[in-house]
Amino acid sequence: MVRPNEEVEALLQEYADLVLITGGDAFKARAYEKAARAVGGYHADVSRLDAKGLQEIPNVGRSIAEKVTEYLRTGRMPAVEDVRSKIPPGVRELMGIPTLGPKKAMLLYQDLHISSVPQLLDAIHQERLRDLKGFGPKTEENILHGIALMQAAGDRVPLNVAMEVAEDIVAELSAITGCERCTYAGSLRRMRETIGDVDILVAARGSGPFMAAFTRLPGTAEVIARGEKKTSIRTAKGLQVDLRVVPPDSWGAGLQYFTGSRPHNIRTREMAVHHKLKLSEYGLFHAKSGRKVVSRTEEEVYARLGLPWIPPTLREDRGEVAAGLRGELPELIQEADIRGDLHTHTDLTDGLAPLEEMVEAAARRGLRYYAITDHAPNLSMQRMTDEKVLAQRERVRELDGKHRKMRLLHGTELNIDADGSVDWPPEFLAGFDLCVASVHSHFNQGRDALTRRLVTACEHPEVNIIGHPTTRIIGKRPALDMDLDAVFAACARTGTALEINSHPDRLDLCDDHILRAKRYGVKFAVNTDAHAPLHLANLRYGVGTAQRGWLTAEDVINTWPLDRLRRFLRKDALARA
Ligand code: DGT
Ligand code: CA
Ligand code: CA
Ligand code: ZN
């Protein structure tokens, strides 16, 4: 259970923001921010720790530990409530605009008395922001963009948030007597990057006990509608969950119907009509007689339509039905195909756990190889140096071989500078087993410059993987504006892989871009970018995204045996052939 950790993380982060905007000590704000991240990434449930246990979390000192204990005991953190009361709630809403930030939000409030998003929009259109120090036309554009992003994300939640809620509910309902099948359907089963609501499906003879239990779950804050076939609730965090109970005999048809997507279902219904059949959530029926043909399993339903079973991650009407008819569905990559992780951090830079712990956790997950890729010196706040990274390499070499089945690779995550160059000279880079290179600054350079920058990075003989290629943060930061086709072509030409970053806030590349890149013959790396042992479990979301991009194991370099991977990392055309 990670939820108490996330709750405390959010609270400490809020406190850090509030300290900043009320003009408090920047050092204190930073301390709370670090503690927030550490709690979020901590392996143990904080609600089970006492003050002493809490202080064992990195970056959590006595004073923070005391505040957290009090919160866990009473549900309140007076220090936060105290600063909250000094600021109108609207201002905190402003802080939430991705491109604005706490300081500017406070300035808007103090100087222009703006305390809501609509007021801010008015002020921008009346050009009242232009007189403020540090605000210009570019700032306005950025703020407008931020508001648009926030509104586009709307009420949808990140994939992992929905997944955790759904898996808890599935576990609860599965334990009820009479439950023959239970799973989540909808966009979650299709692994979309954000989820509107969670759809749970149960197969049972009677729905009563399931509906009753569902409305009484600890996470249920509000019952939206209760019925015999469908009940909807809202969780404390505002996420809607729909439960549908179907007769065991209709399981396959129900699951197919409620998994969607709607456009995919339109295709399958067309196929049914073509076969003089009718498809509904109850089954596949003869159009004329109304007699049931099949309904028990998804496989049977698809088979009777002349199709192989179509994996949920493909059900987006992107040609999967036509491919199925031709017998050309891709053999999708599975989580078990992943042999190694090629982008991870330790507490030498901004990770939360020491090298040994990360390696231990990776070995427990059954990986066959594992690359440590801490940040390089140009990300100056991480304070990397030649000495530090070389000392780390020594430790990596010593550790290598301690885990019988898992090899260690020593790499780094380079920064792609504004001109496409990276940290460290080529001779130094040659000492790494692999280099990830990512954009961490100058996001708004303009299309031509950004394209050139990425292409230049691909052409670097030591750069093997472009990390989180578009740098988007879902709902917060837009993708880099660049000519993706030019970048994809450069990757294919130079033997540079594109990352599919598994962090649920990133999922970068996204499914559409993966599909497009694959046409250029690009290879991919599904990585976690883990900053803590817990993050290694995010791999499933990266694999889900890769599946949505129709990738097979062959397309993904970290499914390959190590010797084949090493040849790819040499980056010469012959070795790749
Ligand atoms: P979401 O919730 O916006 O992330 O996306 P979905 O795909 O989970 O959509 P949702 O929850 O509205 O519906 C779940 C599935 O039910 C959807 O993918 C397809 C299926 N479905 C097909 N036709 C209908 C319909 O008329 N009403 C509803 N509620 N669901 C339908
Ligand atoms: Ca849904
Ligand atoms: Ca729904
Ligand atoms: Zn990273």
TrEMBL record:
A GO molecular-function term, please?
A: exonuclease activity
Tell me where in or outside the cell this protein is found: Cytoplasm
Chief localization: cytoplasm
InterPro entries named among the record's database cross-references:
DNA-dir_DNA_pol_X (IPR002054), DNA_pol_lamdba_lyase_dom_sf (IPR027421), DNA_Pol_thumb_sf (IPR037160), DNA_pol_X_beta-like (IPR002008), HHH_MUS81 (IPR010996), Hlx-hairpin-Hlx_DNA-bd_motif (IPR003583), NT_sf (IPR043519), PHP_dom (IPR004013)
Q: Locate the Polymerase/histidinol phosphatase N-terminal domain: which residues?
A: 340-418
Q: Which residues form the Helix-hairpin-helix DNA-binding motif class domain?
A: 52-71, 92-111, 127-146
Provide the cofactor list for this protein: Mg(2+)
The EC number(s) given in the record are 2.7.7.7, 4.2.99.18
A Pfam family the protein falls into: HHH_5
Source taxon at top rank: Bacteria
Role noted for this protein: Repair polymerase that plays a key role in base-excision repair. During this process, the damaged base is excised by specific DNA glycosylases, the DNA backbone is nicked at the abasic site by an apurinic/apyrimidic (AP) endonuclease, and POLB removes 5'-deoxyribose-phosphate from the preincised AP site acting as a 5'-deoxyribose-phosphate lyase (5'-dRP lyase); through its DNA polymerase activity, it adds one nucleotide to the 3' end of the arising single-nucleotide gap.
Q: What is this protein called?
A: DNA polymerase beta
- Name of encoding gene: polX
